[in-house]
Amino acid sequence: MIGITFLSFALMHIGPGDPAEKYLAGGDGNKGMVSEEAIAAQREKWGLDKPFLEQYFTWLGNAFRGDLGTSYSTGRPVLSELMSKIGPTVILSVASMFVILLISIPLGILSALYKDGVIDNFCRVFSFFGISLPSFLVSLLLLYVFGVQLNWFSIMGEGGIKGLILPVAVLAFQSAAKLTRQVRAAVLEELNKPYVRGAMARGIKKSRILFHHVLRNAMMPILTLSGIYFGVLLGGACVVESIFSWQGLGQLAVSAVKSSDYLLLQGIVLWIAVLYLVVNFAIDASYALLDPRVRKGASGK
Question: How many other C-beta atoms lie within 10 A of the C-beta of residue 289?
Answer without folding.
Answer: 10
